[in-house]
Amino acid sequence: MKSLLLTVLLAETCAYLFCAANQNARDSFHVSLPPPKFATALRPDSPFGINTAFGPETPDLVPRLQAIQQAGIKWGRQDFTWHRIEKAPGEYDWSGYDRLVDLCHQHGLMIFGNLTYAPAFHDPRTPAGVEAYCAFARTAAQRYAGKVDDWQIWNEPNGGYWRGSADEYARLLAAAGKAIHQANPKARVLGLNSAFCDVRFAEAVLKQVPNDCFDVACFHPYRPPNAPEDKFDWWMLDQYVKSWNKKSLTTDYPLIRMTLLEQAEELSRTIRQFGPAKPLWVTEMCWNTHIHPYGLSELHQADLLVRLYVLAIASERIDKVFWWTLKDQGTRQFDQADMVGLMRADLAPKYSYYAYACMTRMLEGKRWLRNDAFGPDVFVCVFRDEASGEDTLVAWANKPFAYVRVSNTDRGLDFYDIFGTYRHVPYDKVRTGHLPVPLGESPVYIVGASGTKANTRPDPGW
Questions:
Q1: N or C: more exposed end of the chain, with fewer CB within 10 A?
Q2: Beta strand pairing status for 280-285 and 318-323?
Q3: How many CB atoms lie within 10 A of CB 143?
Q4: Residues 381 and 339 in one domain
Q5: Is 141 helix (H, G, I), strand (E, B) or coil?
Q6: Percent of the chain with pLDDT over 90
Q7: Same domain for 375 and 315?
Q8: Which helix (H) or strand (E) holds 352?
Q9: Contact, 278 vs 271, CB < 8 A?
């Protein structure tokens, strides 16, 4: 990883400082990265995912897949759009998706299929519509068995993409889950798939479905502008409580005052009330970089991306996270819907793209070992490289500064920021045998010999 060096190109900055009338952003930042270690390998256990947000006819499909591959991302959430496939009742055209699945695999990207968005002649809230959806899902599961073995039943059925009740979604989930399992016994069915961490919706559905009709519980816990470790969620307060549920909830709703992992545990606890625990996947999540309410700076987005993924892995509660999405949907810097990506609309990388790419190079293929600190203010998560025997500590503070004391050995310690900037501290019995390391809100990777440990420090002194 010593070749993972940072090159900052600032030549263009001054030229564009005063172009306020231009809505487009221009990049002046570049990171030179070594090739991803597992470029073409399909890695089912990888936690690193992305919402592809493309389809078979997307003009820049191959460049997007190349960017995903270069970032080291191993999983994609892919819409298998019902109305694009079934254009006449009972007639399916899978040809575009056949090519798409193969292209994804060629670029080292496993995908799961999101079966959603009905044609005008089917209403999945009705018994006939459920039957039609099950036929569609069954055919997909059979056709792609061994290539795509994970299928999501609708997108955000607790919100505007469903326009039905929890009862109606429960009927669809139970029937479609059974159909997929019968068509491909090795398939996993992804259920709930709610906007927010909506435990009320989850409970309403779980009361009505067989526990084995789905295998993985999914949710979309957006929380801008709050960090994942914050014990407050402005987005849930303003959108879920004050807008979506203004007649039934008040501002003392408990989930508002929880961290992301505490919200995830509430969802898991709700699931366990109705049967065995299920794996949790975050199948949408991001912090947008628009210059408007709920927006973040692009640098802070990069920091929070790394913190989100490491927290998910190290919590042992969330198996996979799928960032929304690879590229911005537009160029309006004030628009929340436009400023969603790791890259700009023209595929120019943002800071967060490089942070994601560096993270996969540092952590893909390594095993989470333990947490030397796990909040509320300091986090140190330890990963083991079984091949080299080295440990990688990912450390940060959810406050402006903090310190940890890290054990050192004759090997010395290697330090990388989220973009791969490299520093080495050799071993010195007196000065660096136990090294005080300053932390901030941007994570740092600390690589040392097997057994490298960190202890929190109450102050910056020796």
A1: C
A2: parallel
A3: 16
A4: no
A5: helix
A6: 90
A7: no
A8: helix 351-363
A9: yes
Q: Distance (Å, rounded) from C-alpha 80 to C-alpha 55? A: 8
Residue-wise pLDDT tens digits, 152-167: 999 999 998 998 999 9
The span from the CA of 75 to the CA of 42, in Å, is: 9
pTM, entire model: 0.94
**DSSP of 291-336:** SSTT---HHHHHHHHHHHHHHHHHHTSEEEEEES-SB-S---TT-T
Q: Are 344 and 417 in a shared domain?
A: no
Q: 302 is written with which tokens?
A: 């990069």
Q: C-alpha angle with apex 320: 240 to 165, nearest 5 degrees?
A: 35
Q: In angstroms, what CA-CA distances link 270 with 155, 249, 454?
A: 20, 18, 35
Which residues are CB-contacts of 318 (< 8 A; sequence separation ≥ 6)? 47, 261, 264, 280, 281, 282, 312
CATH number, residue 177: 3.20.20.80
Q: Can you read off the two tokens belonging to residue 181?
A: 């399992």
Residue 262: count other Cβ atoms within 10 Å of its Cβ: 16
| Structural element, H or E, at residue 264 | helix 260-272
Rounded CA gap, 321 and 324, in Å?
Answer: 10
Q: Are strands 86-88 and 30-31 parallel, antiparallel or unpaired?
A: unpaired
Does one domain contain both 288 and 419?
A: no
Convert the pLDDT of each residue in 218-232 to its tens digit.
999 999 999 999 999
For helices 127-143 and 166-183, the axis angle rounded to 10 degrees is 30
pLDDT digits (tens, 9 = 90+) for 27-79: 668 889 889 999 999 999 999 999 999 999 999 999 999 999 999 999 999 99
Alpha carbon 357 to its chain centroid, in Å, reads 13
Residue 111 is part of which domain span?
6-365
Do residues 68 and 107 touch, judged by C-beta distance below 8 A? yes
CA-wise closest residue to 267 among 276, 280, 258, 284? 280
Helix, strand, or coil (residue 349) = strand
Q: Are the beta carbons of 405 and 436 closer than 8 angstroms? A: yes
Q: Going by DSSP bridges, is the β-strand pair 378-384/413-416 parallel, antiparallel, or unpaired?
A: unpaired
Q: Work out whether the CA dihedral 54, 60, 65, 70 comes out positive or negative.
A: negative
DSSP at 236: I
